[in-house]
Specification:
WG_beta_rep, signal, WG repeat-containing protein, 1 helix, mainly beta, Lipocalin, disordered N terminus
Length: about 375
């Protein structure tokens, strides 16, 4: 019997530590909300940050520390400023000095750098002089500083700049695209877009393939097709640089679920891969479809439609955050893992796909849900 109780206790602790939590503000205090529509930690903090890797930074008497998912102090509040944990490491400030700490609050000795950079996926930048390189979470240099600039990694690849020319490296610091281009995009299925001279095209296996007439290309995202501009109009190209949908639209966004928002004049609708309008252009604005098959559309306010164009959630919400939700990007304007963050009459809340409000709760501010799983 005791073994069974111990097992259940361990399971419940593991569940609490692995669920997603959202930072919310209610009655002037911050707390943490669950996808079950309840408070994991009641609003009681004057200032707080999102959970990251099982820990959240909160302020106590002017100092910052970290709590766990039960609201217990994991690292005492002794810091002047803190950032977020990633790869088991966080940047903190104490006595005007910025240092790295681990999840136990222990200071880590890092290679020489003029500035400390956040870790992401086990890698962080270091800067020596005017050059930037890479270190891993073991504080070992994996790329000596050699680039003028390195952009954040996306799916294991980062854009790098030297002498005003751009290329791409992987997480081992190896160049997968030589830095010889005036502009460059993300790396998707061994392909990127780039600008060479005055021409825009795609780079595959080190070869630059111009795209006929293109004067701008956007990043590939979830499908093997992206949007590009020619003569002031927007169409779509494939991974070989062919125009698969002619540039006849005034504006466009990415394909998702084989549907893409496009604008003609001032109205937005959705086309399929054959350039057929599945949802007529009747909206003031439109965003891409989420994995659950719903997309935000705007009349006077925002609502959500399904893949057949049926309005399943009325257009009565705001979806764009200002200032407070720094992590709330364009990719956060729809449903994420079954929840959409919206604003209504000055309050923020979370919608479920059936249009009901999570926990029937509205907040003064609310962040997106973040994964609370501790780093092992």
């Amino acid at each position: 019997m005791k073994k069974s109780l111990l097992f259940l206790l361990l399971v419940s602790i593991q569940f609490v530590n692995s669920q997603e939590l959202a930072l919310v503000k209610k009655n002037g205090k911050f707390g943490y909300f669950t996808k079950a529509g309840t408070f994991q930690i009641e609003p009681k903090y004057k200032v707080a940050k999102n959970f990251s890797e099982g820990l959240a930074a909160v302020e106590d008497n002017g100092k910052w520390g970290f709590i766990d998912a039960q609201g217990n102090w994991a690292i005492p509040a002794t810091f002047d400023n803190v950032k977020y944990f990633n790869s088991g490491i966080c940047i903190v400030s104490k006595d005007k000095n910025w240092v790295y700490i681990n999840t136990k609050g222990e200071v880590l000795k890092a290679p020489a750098s003029e500035k400390l950079f956040d870790f992401d996926g086990g890698i962080a930048f270091i800067k020596q002089g005017n050059k930037v390189g890479l270190i891993n979470s073991k504080m070992t240099v994996i790329l000596e500083p050699k680039y003028d600039l390195i952009k954040p990694f996306e799916n294991g690849f980062a854009r790098v700049k030297n002498n005003d020319k751009w290329g791409i490296i992987n997480t081992a610091g190896k160049e997968v695209v030589e830095p010889i281009y005036a502009e460059i995009g993300n790396y998707y299925k061994t392909t990127t877009w780039a600008k060479k001279g005055e021409a825009f095209g795609l780079v595959t296996a080190g070869k630059f393939i111009p795209v006929d007439g293109a004067d701008k290309i956007w990043d590939f995202e979830s499908q093997d097709i992206t949007y590009a501009r020619k003569g002031g109009k927007v169409g779509y190209i494939d991974l070989k640089g062919n125009w698969t949908i002619l540039p006849i639209y005034d504006k466009a966004k990415a394909f998702s679920k084989n549907l893409a928002p496009v604008c003609i004049g001032s109205k937005w609708g959705y086309i399929n891969l054959k350039a057929e309008f599945i949802i007529p252009p009747t909206y003031k604005d439109a965003e891409v479809f989420s994995k659950n098959g719903l997309a935000p559309v705007k009349e006077n306010n925002w609502g959500f439609i399904d893949e057949k164009g049926k309005l399943v959630i009325p257009t009565q919400y705001g979806i764009t955050a200002k200032g407070f939700a720094a992590l709330f990007t364009d990719q956060g304007k729809g449903f994420i893992d079954g929840i959409a963050r919206v604003q209504n009459e000055g309050k923020w809340g979370f919608l479920k796909p059936d249009g009901t409000v999570l926990g029937n709760q509205w907040f003064e501010n609310a962040e997106l849900f973040t994964n609370n799983k501790p780093k092992i």
